[in-house]
């Protein structure tokens, strides 16, 4: 095959691959956020007995890495390795919407879960560990 014909075939192929790549990226961005959470009143007013307890930082970081990072990403942006396979988009833990929630609401969302967000009550049964994770999620503030 002559060099001119090879170039003639290479550019359209490269353009087609670039378009497919961009379409795949755009499709993942079309995800919608799920409906607002229905949080029971008990959790809306729940106080964090370990708020600001720096001795729990290591535990919270470890639990996040083990249970949350694969979906929510290394710094809580919702871009973990499993995020692309989920049907809904996730809010960033550093974002104002997430950080404006009470600790009790974050606790409920983190451990009770819903839909694609699994329930972690059995995987993280210790209350202190649960609050350590809530405290760690607070550390993602902008």
UniProtKB/TrEMBL annotation:
SUPFAM superfamilies: Cytochrome c. Keywords: Heme, Iron, Metal-binding, Signal. Pfam families: Cytochrome_CBB3. The keyword Oxidoreductase does not apply. InterPro entries: Cyt_c-like_dom, Cyt_c-like_dom_sf. One of its GO terms (molecular function) is metal ion binding. Residues 1-26 form the signal peptide. Residues 58-137 form the Cytochrome c domain. This is Cytochrome c, mono-and diheme variants. It comes from Saccharicrinis carchari.
């Amino acid at each position: 095959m002559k060099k001119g014909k090879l170039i003639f075939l290479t550019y359209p192929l490269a353009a087609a691959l670039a378009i497919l790549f961009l379409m795949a990226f755009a499709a993942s961005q079309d995800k919608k956020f799920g409906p607002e959470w229905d949080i029971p009143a008990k959790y809306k007013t729940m106080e964090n007995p370990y708020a600001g307890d720096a001795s729990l930082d290591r535990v919270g970081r470890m639990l996040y890495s083990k249970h949350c990072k694969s979906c929510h990403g290394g710094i809580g942006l919702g871009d973990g390795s499993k995020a692309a396979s989920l049907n809904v988009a996730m809010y960033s833990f550093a974002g104002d919407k997430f950080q404006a929630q009470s600790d009790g609401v974050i606790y409920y969302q983190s451990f009770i879960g819903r839909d694609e967000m699994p329930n972690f009550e059995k995987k993280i049964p210790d209350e202190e560990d649960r609050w350590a994770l809530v405290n760690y999620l607070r550390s993602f503030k902008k």
